Amino acid sequence: MIKFHPDPELLSEYVQGGLSPINSIMIAAHCDMCERCEKIAHQQTLIHAEKFESDIGNLSEFKENASSDRKFDEMLESILNLPADKRALKRAQGLSASVELDGRRFILPKTLRKFIPSTGNWTSMVGRLWQAPVDIGNDSIAANLIYIGQGGGIPEHSHRGIETTLVLKGTFEDGINQYQAGDYVYMDSNDTHTPVCHSPQGCLLFTVLDQPLHFTSGVARYTNPFSHIFFR
Ligand SMILES: [Zn+2]
């Protein structure tokens, strides 16, 4: 069962469109995998839609006394009749739903599928790690698919900025908790951890960083330029 969810405030911001594009992507991808948060987001959407409708109602009363009735009606009409972007919908449906690594296929949550065409090749790294950079159209954010094979891991590190991870497949632990598919893991400058994977099928993660990691122990400490591996 999924144990780690985004904060309720974050979900509320999400449905109101108040989050940065990358935070929205992470929350939407989590909601694809998490029935609980999907329900909360849906309920919040209904609440905000009701509020929007009552706001529109108030505006209608106001406009009865306004001189530009016709213009207002036309504007409202054009907003309400905006056609859905059917071509974009078709494109999204036609996209492949999975990524492949070493002959294995991993189905991605719906929200992440649109990034499959902008996902780079897998690179094999030390520690049974694989990394594939995902171009999300923002140069100051590093987004990666990371696969950790059984017995593999990432050296102990702290965070200069914010690291958000969505577990897509398998499980891993980091000395603080154990995480499984669907878990939404938020780490910031207060957190130091050492992710390792013990599950036989390995684990697939989608991670987003706004600053390079800072390695804090072992050999990796002396090779902190290594931190840029995840930040390119
Ligand atoms: Zn959730």
The main sheet comes to: 6 strands, antiparallel
Q: What is the CATH architecture assignment of the largest domain? A: Sandwich
Number of helices: 7
Q: State the helical fraction.
A: 25-40%
Rg computed from alpha carbons, rounded to a whole number of angstroms: 22 Å
The top-level CATH class of the largest domain is Mainly Beta
Which cofactor or ligand species appear?
zinc ion
Strand % is: 15-25%
What features would you describe in this structure?
The protein has 2 domains: 8-92, no CATH class; 96-230, Jelly Rolls, CATH 2.60.120. The mean pLDDT is 83. The protein has helices at 8-15, 21-33, 35-64, 69-80, 86-94, 110-113, 218-222; strands at 98-101, 104-107, 123-125, 129-134, 142-148, 157-159, 163-169, 171-173, 178-180, 184-187, 192-193, 203-209, 213-215. A hairpin with a 3-residue loop joins strand 3 and strand 4. With 232 residues, the protein is α+β, with helices and mostly antiparallel strands. The strands form 4 sheets. The protein has a 6-stranded antiparallel β-sheet, with helices on one face. It contains 7 helices and 13 strands. Helix 2 (21-33) packs across helix 3 (35-64). The radius of gyration is 22 Å and the shape is elongated. It is 35% helix and 24% strand. Bound molecules: zinc ion. The site of zinc ion has 6 residues, from helix 3.
